[in-house]
Amino acid sequence: MSDKKVSRPCHHCKSRSASAPADTSKIHYEKFWLYRHCSSVQQRDQQAQKAGQLFSGLLAMNVVFLGSAFISSMIFNKVAITLADVWILLSILKVLCLFWIIYYLLGTSRQPHAVLYRDSHAGAIWIRGSVLLFGSCSILLNAFQIGYSTILVHCKSRMEIVFPSIGILFICTQAYFLWHHSKDCIQVQHNFTRCGLMLTIATNLLLWLLAVTNDTLHVEIESQLREVERRFAGKAPSSHPHWGNETTLCTCPNTTICKVFQKGYILLYPFNTEYCLVCCSMLYVMWKNVGRRISHHHIPHAKPKFKLQGVVFGPLLGTSAVIIGACVFMMYQIQATTLAPSRQVFVIYYSYYIVLLPLMSVGAVIGTIIHALEKKELDTLKNPTRSLDVVLLMGAALGQIGMSYFSIVALVATDPRDLLNSLILSYSVLLIFQNITQNVFVIDGLHRRRTPPGKEEDTKEEQNREAYSQRRVSVLELGQEIRKASLSYIHTYSHLSWKRRVLREISFFLVLCNIILWVMPTFGAHPVFENGMERSFYGYSTWFVIVNFGLPLGVFYRMHSVGGLLEVYVTA
Fold first, then answer.
1. 432 and 557 in contact (C-beta within 8 Å)?
2. Across the chain, which distance is largest between two alpha carbons, in Å?
3. CB contact at 8 A, 441 and 371
């Protein structure tokens, strides 16, 4: 496999066709040894792209299968393959990814004509911001793990300090890489870049898989808590397979700093899985954009701007949902951090969801009906970012849907007539319906062409901006300016068609609802694990895997839905 940079004189260069003119002296066609017999230069280019994607995909598949085999062997045969062995493999993969990222930053991206095009749809500010947020929390998580292992260094292996240290370096480098280069459509070293991106994707997937299945430290902390309870009760040490005498030999000393490390690790654990998922999605878009040449009609002349105009009821209802949700969240968190949450708090928590989810479902259904009534053309242009958005929305929704079905089976099999059980059962059913209706609404909206604003409105807005910038508003003029702004807002609201107005109201309401539904499971304790219903039915380890598989996907779904709904709001 080899890449040759060839500059050929050509009058029409484009990523998929030959209709848009470009500077042909800067185009580097891909070459691949399997397709040298092709007569057409562009046909050879397209075939080489497919072959490069195939080979890099096979590389990622083999790395994922190898890592999955290691992790599975660790779960089912802890004697032959230990957690330290898995950490060594992942550390090697992280170091290889680090070398490639550094080479890309210092070598590939700085070559002449390396980045001729940038994908305006890729690397939106909200998803890059989430990389920084989740990356920062993952760094703290690794720091807590290092601190915890350092305190217990007499009974911990050195690998428990080395692995998170490499993890911090990997997270920092990858976050910088994605922040600055997520929009790149690289035009040189195509195959090497594809293989590097796929190796990084495979590494993130394996880190996510390990985080989902590895409950070692959680079990250790649970063991210590239960041991303390038994000592107070005057009972003998436990012989539970998870909480046996082995774990009590490595007990956290009764110091504040050790308790902080324990609590911080458990609180920040979901952020690490979330970080891996977000990075995989951004790296996949970069992989699809390798060698892509964007024609002029693909490049938006003006970026759609978010304007809080034409909406009244959506922000009011959404803000009410956020305020009530924040109160419920704080009430639950106060009890969860001080003592075991009471039954009443669980009832309030799930009742809030049972009221909110039907409202969101109804809004999504109404929005979908309005989309069907509108005769707006579908945007059929090829867009890797939008295609990935659709796949991620559908795939991430499987996390919450899967957890809901597991809960339904457990609750129906035990005691569905109990008040709390019936609330959790209703919550699970409504959550499935809400995910499906919202996905239909968002995906339909993403494929609608943006309605350009009228020229008169644009001219008036520009004149208003110039007027505001040229003169200072004094205290005496403040009331007059507020009145003018209010009249302008009412004018804009009244001139929107009723369909666009309703779509904007629904979109904004759903944005705020998804934000609070993202905040509650992300920054706090998790009732789905702490209510004890499903955990007692499936067992600790099984329910741990189910929750750590579904919860990060659910958080990712809410975060990704906010981006999709904002896009629907702008295009309405």
1. no
2. 86
3. yes
